[in-house]
Amino acid sequence: QDHDLFAEFQYIKEQGPYSSSLLKFVEASYDYFDIFIFITYLFATTRFGLTLVPGKAILVPTAHDEPFMYLPIFRSLFHLPQAIVYSTLPEKLLVNRITDNEKQIEEAIIGIGINVPEDVSASRFREKFKIEGDFVLYVGRIVQAKNVPELLDYFLRFRETYGKPIKLLLGGKSHLNLPVHPDIVHLGFLTEEEKFDAIHAARLVILPSLYESLSMIVLEAWLMKTAVLVNGRCEVLKYQCRKSNGGLYYTSHQEFEAALTLLLNSPDLCQQLGEQGHQFASYHYNWDTIITKYQTLFAKILSDEN
What we know:
By secondary structure, the chain is α/β, with parallel strands linked by helices.
C-alpha cells in the first residue's frame, strides 16, 4: 500500500518494543560505554536507539528476505553503525543487495553459540510423552509465518503413499487448527530438556520455514547428530545444508516426498548426515569460537576509533 515515511515510523513505534526512558538512557550513556550492540533490525529499540549512538554501534540484524527489509526507513539503518554482524553468508549477501552497503561498513559473519545439555535421553522423552515407533520432528512456533500449514499438507500427502509407520511430532505452542490424524502429534510447549530429548529420539528434524537468518533448531539437531530436512526455498537453510552436508532440502512436494523417503529408508545415510552436521556445528557455533570472533571485532572497532 502507498504510504509515507511518517507511517513507517509510526508502524515501528507501535510494533515496539518502545521505551522513551531506554532511548534517553542510551543517548545519555554515550560516553560511558565503548560499544552498543543492537540485535534485530526490525525492533523499535534498534531503529531509534542505533541512530542515537551510530559512532559506537554494532548491528546484529538477523535479517530475512521479507517485505520490511525493503522499506526506506530500514534501508538507511544499514549504513549507520560501525559494524554489522551477520549470522550467515546468505544474510550478508541479502543485506548488501537490498541496502547497497557493502564495503562501506565493517562486516563480520559470526552467528551464535549453542548450549547443549549434558544429560540428554531419547528414552526419557519417549516414556514421558508415550511415544512409540519412528517419528520426524518439528520444533518452533506453529504458525502460518513459519510455513507449518505446508508441512502438514506435505506430510499428510506423504503418509498416503508411504507404507511404513511414521509420525510427525510438533513441539511448540500452536496458533493453528491442527488436523486430527493419528500420525500428527502435538506435544505442546517443550522445555529445553524435553526439546533436546525429542531431537535425540527423532529420525530427523524438519524445518519448513521460508525465512531464517540462522536456524537454531537445525544447529541443535546437528549437535545431537540428527539429520535435517529443510525448505530449500530459504537460502539460509539451503546454504547451511550444503555447507555442512548435514541434511537434505526440498523445493516442492515431490522433492519433499523423495527426500523424506530416502532418509527414512536409509538409516546409515541419516547417521552420516547427522555426524557431518555435528562436525560443522561444533566447529563454527561453539561459544569459544563465537566469543573470539566478537573480541576480534571489538578490538578492531576500538583501534579504528583511536
